[in-house]
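Quick one: structure tokens for this chain, please?
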Amino acid sequence: MTPTTIRLGGVPEHFNLPLHLAIEDGSFTSRGVDIDWTTFHGGTGQMTRALREDEIDVCILLTEGIIKDIIAGNQSKIISGYINTPLIWGVHTGANNSLNNLSEIYSHQYGISRFGSGSHLMAIVDATGQEMKIQKDQFHIIKNLDGALSSLTALETDVFYWEKYTTKPYVDNGQLRRLGEFVTPWPCFMIAATDKILHAEPTAIIRMLRTIHDSCDQFMQSQESIPLVAKRYNQQLKDVERWYHSTEWAIHGWVSDKMLNSVVHNLRVADIVSSDDVIPQLVWKRNTSTT
């Protein structure tokens, strides 16, 4: 059987290590799937655009980001959960910024990777929960974490939301200060695929998903996972241990309708999704003949 190539992408963060391990040990290949991996340093906003423009077939991306973009016309579907636990966002500022606590941030300048990215959406959701409103001209595109470090250091921007364990080395070395945290009120990462690949290669997509779920299950059972993450991602062992034991990967493709409805509700409350927007089918409905 000739393997089916699937273009798969995600952020360069420790959450995706089970995928890389499955690529490295040949697990995908043994199920007739060749993975062509792309790293997206710009996060969810960059990935939703890549899905739209047929630059990628499947992405691991933030739940709220892909839901927002499907509602906005992205011809893709959620095909599985990936991380069942919430994301803990660190709320950061530059080392020399005069900001000292979270209550001060809402009138300041925000660095975001892209409009529609997690760093953008979560800032709005967080502010809305505090009955505050961030104006569009307060957001400045800094593209990625490196851009944020430069912008915050130069005091061009004041506030930046990013996954707290990814940024912790920069907090530890004094480049960033963490003002606080924000916990996403839903499971943080989903797997999404374009309608094009779902129509063309449904069986290969299911084989890919089974491989991902198996690798995630093995990763959660392995005693070597914590030191492996610490070594590969240059993290402190105690930080990785804390992160690992607060994170659960999905080992099946079920996605909760209640969770989806809650995300849509919060996006509407935050005026990210209009109350007039029609909610399309968000989740892939598998043909049972391909399972």
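The first strand starts at residue 4 and ends at 10.
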